[in-house]
Amino acid sequence: MAATTPAPTAVDAPHSLTSRLIAEAVGTFFLVVAVLGTALFSAPYIGFLAVAFAIGLVVLVGAYAFGPISGGHFNPAVTLGVAAAGRLPWRDALPYIAAQIVGGAVGSSLLAWIASTKAGAFAKMHAAGFASNGYGDLSPDKYSIVGAIIVEVILTALFVYVILGVTHLRAAAGFAPIAIGFTLTVIHLIAIPVDNASVNPARSIASAIWGGPDALGQLWVFIVFPIVGALIAGFTFRFLFDRKPSGDYLAPFDLAGDTPAS
């Protein structure tokens, strides 16, 4: 009688969708509390450099903490880019995005609650847009919608390229969160003066909820264009960076299948 493969144990089984969604919600909650909390409470004293480092650090920590469970996306654009690259089943993308939006909204609501405990603080933050993304009059340095679109498409695409590269099977193990966190810091150093730096629709939705009608009116830009950038990166990554070599060159790994070359 042929030997049968033993059933996987609980340890061997992948994390359930419910566990992954909880990880995405908690991770996005943590991200929003960190980046918006720094922008609202600390940046008035020490500048936007603090926000850039806060987002990089929180993503680094969150990726180490929750990445082994869900992949550590914390960002609908990243989820769609990863799915476009074939790293996540499309059927899981919508639940991931829903969990991220809920986690982010809870995070910004917690900050609004904290702000309400000081007389006049919430009203001041609300009038200033609650650290929402924006262009034109809502841009920190008054950049137009064209500038915001360019920033969101290009920087989100670069961010997703980095994520796909450092999480590849051939990448150095254990260093992906560091590279991703520092990349996000650099992105925010570039983009904060332009449009307050989104590259994450969940973060933009979370802040716009409390940012008032003007922020909500411009929100579509920071949903649509980060997703456009992420999809460009996801659909082109394999063609640009993961192609099989030509000629007699024998690669250490099969670039199409991530298996040892024979």
Key features?
262 residues, mainly alpha, Glycerol uptake facilitator protein
Describe this structure in words.
66% of the residues lie in helices and 2% in strands. The protein is mostly helical and 262 residues long. It has one domain: Glycerol uptake facilitator protein (Up-down Bundle), CATH 1.20.1080.10. α4 (90-115) packs parallel to α8 and α8 packs antiparallel against α9. The longest helix has 30 residues, at 17-46. The chain is globular. The two termini are 31 Å apart. Residues 1-13 and 247-262 have low confidence and may be disordered.
Helix-and-strand structural type? mainly alpha
Main β sheet profile: 2 strands, antiparallel
Mean pLDDT: 89
Order of strands, widest sheet? 1-2
Count structural domains: 1
- Described by the principal axes of the CA atoms, the overall outline is globular
Number of distinct beta strands: 2
Stated plainly, the CATH topology is called Glycerol uptake facilitator protein
Task: Give the helix tally.
Answer: 9
Map the helices and strands.
Elements: H1 17-46, H2 48-70, H3 76-84, H4 90-115, H5 121-127, H6 145-166, H7 176-195, H8 201-208, H9 213-241, E1 253-254, E2 259-260
Antiparallel strand pairs: 1-2
Précis, in short:
The protein has 262 residues and is mostly helical. 66% of the residues lie in helices and 2% in strands.
